[in-house]
């Protein structure tokens, strides 16, 4: 049985007004640690505390224009993403889908227009890091996981709140942090692969791990560019289920060319063409839209 040394007994630790400063410092730390009225930083959502989504709109893109050498890649683009919605963006090559994501994440600055997160965070006044901290996570097409680390360590590294590479090997996780990693492992379907090196995962599993790494940051908005390129049919089905399960708690914007996949996640679809929204609606509405048929579906 473990015995508490006399000098660390709970009564003594919680006693106030000690003359010994290091001991009282220690008591204060311990008292803070067991407080029930606080939420630890790593459990807090990372999105901006001032984010105001009372109007149920998480992302506003209004009148955005961006030219490259005189060519309008984005042309008077208006797009509104509701809280918790799963939106698919489709459109021909060069329609401006990736440029739109670059603008949302601060990688590219538009020439004109407004981009807001909630009704009060002006993303055009923020840099890329600030935008990420405000709650926008982006998944690029190519998975960017640390192949020489295990799946678990990849998630640990991505954990909200600073955990550097060396902490992963040195500093122990507490129970709540482990629970959080297990929750994300379950969400992305990689519980059985937790101790595998990420380099040994299949292409699809790497994509899910990367989505898991984004989830560790507790984003409000997830931007996912062509998630199923190169996946098997089975992996596509699992990705569809994963993205659908994330909606509600997160808003998810998926850019994808694969029509079967878009159909399978059955969300609102926006068709981008020459830098602006040509049509918006359910997949069946989109498919029967004559303009969309002409420019994109080629039917
Ligand atoms: N940095 C840049 N400099 C010059 N032109 C660019 C730049 N980024 C994008 N463009 C141009 O803007 C247009 C839109 O490109 P974008 O990559 O956004 O299209 P997309 O809809 O993502 O296409 P895809 O379906 O092929 O991925 C293209 O004509 C592209 O060549
Ligand atoms: Mg693109």
UniProtKB/TrEMBL annotation:
Residues 59-299 form the ABC transporter domain. The keyword Iron does not apply. GO terms for molecular function: ATP binding; ATP hydrolysis activity. Residues 1-25 are annotated as: Disordered. Residues 1-10 have a biased composition (Polar residues). PROSITE patterns: ABC_TRANSPORTER_2 (PS50893). The keyword Amino-acid biosynthesis does not apply. NCBIfam families: urea_trans_UrtD. This is Urea ABC transporter, ATPase protein UrtD.
